[in-house]
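The following record pairs a protein chain with its ligand, PPS.
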Amino acid sequence: MPMGFPLEAFRSALQYTARPSDIFICAYPKCGTTWLQYIVYLILHEGKVLPASGSMTKEIPHLEEVGKAAVEDLGSPRCIKSHLPLHMMPHHSEASYLYIARNPFDCAVSFYHHTRGFAQHYDFVNGSFDEFFECFLLGEVDFGDYFANLVPWYKSRGQDNILFLTYEQMKAQPLETICSIGSFLGAGAAAVVRDRKVLKDVIRNSSYDSMSRDQQRWSSQRPDNMPAFVRKGQVGDWLNYFSPDQALRLADKFDERAHGTDLKTLWPEVLRAARD
Ligand code: PPS
């Protein structure tokens, strides 16, 4: 857990009773959670932007950070962010769970910047990427091991109430992805994304350019001198950080942990580049 998250909030989060109308936005850290949160927000608000005075952390709070009572105070449908692994996630067979995955190479780089940037959460302000990489490979970072989070969600992706998405797919095909999110969220949301004008608004307002403009909306705890919360927003930034040896080691770990699944089909180019 990040040091700044109250332990009591985490404990109570695990006691939250999910409701059929709940919408959970789930991900391992740094895999596109905020982006997906905002897409869901925009669909539910017919493409209209979050007011400048608003905050995503209030609209769609992070369950483990705020605890159960704050989430129970939300209007319906409750939209809830969580980095919990599947077996700890509050479950209801009729609740909606959107999970976003990102290739572990870019996730590690994004997580490195995050860990260096939040002095109140981590003792890592002067940490190097090489040091962070070793922690990431061991799963000794917040919310634990990347693969322990991803694999069970991936295996459950066929369930009717789970929509499994990837960051890379959302980046390459925003229109198709946003339409699939709308259809998944029920008849009202499906009708919203069928409206071409509203769909265009959702695409434009959730784009990297729009979201990177107003950083204060995405993380209330970001000190002014810290790296942007919506940072580079690219696929492939890892190539600027990984040594050939680090790339091979993470590719090997991927093979080991994805064994018995077809997880490799999610990111074939990335995995090929890691072994080049
Ligand atoms: S957190 O702290 O776990 O909630 O972080 P999370 O939101 O999951 O992930 C942050 C990364 O998502 C990128 N991001 C985006 N990419 C593309 N388009 C849009 N609109 C967008 N919004 C957020 C953000 O820049 C982080 O990735 P990196 O690689 O660090 O840029």
